[in-house]
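By way of example, what follows is a protein record of this kind.
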Amino acid sequence: MVKDAAEVARRLVADEYPEARAAWLGGSVVRGDAASTSDLDITVLLSGPPAPMRRSLEYGGWPVELFVHTEDSLAHFREKDQKRWQPSMMRLVGETVVLLDTDGSGVRLQQDCLEEIAAGPRPLTTSELDLLRYGITCLLDDLADAATDDVRTAIASILWQDAARLLLTGSRHWSGTGKGLLRELKAYDEQHGTDHARALVAGVRDTDALVEEVHGILDQYGGRLFAGFELAAQPV
């Protein structure tokens, strides 16, 4: 599948962006977990306009997500990745098949992103850690007070994700959103011989088990936090 997808992606880049300096194919097709509705995630490097931009289209029988950048915009979004502990741009360039490389930038930027991914995200500040602990503490209290199954399910669906982010970012492991968060959690489990991904997601259906799992994660980072929590307002 990867070979065929890469051929389609190369034709698309040649048709749509003949002036491209480099291009990469990433996402589920390259990871090997593509489904019948998966798209081609293609990142294209230009020297200037129309980059930066994003496009969605269909080409060669595939749905396609195009991420069109300059080196400056790639650097901007990689910096945003670091600030939010989510290596989206880094993976779109690093964990890829190089489709086009006219000047060496394709391989160079791919390697830069792979090194950045391997180095891991920045550590949490004390304030950031406290905010995560406080938010999870409040969700646990809300879960304990939930009057209906619908309310419990709604709270649990948020709680497992916040607990996962605490576990991952607290240990300087990359985080994510949605299925990306679950992938990062499974990667953490593979590295550490743990079972957090299964336990947290299963906890949405068994909230007693979820509470036990979340407390175990909280205890690694100082436990529950309510009394004494402070959050300074941003200057206006």
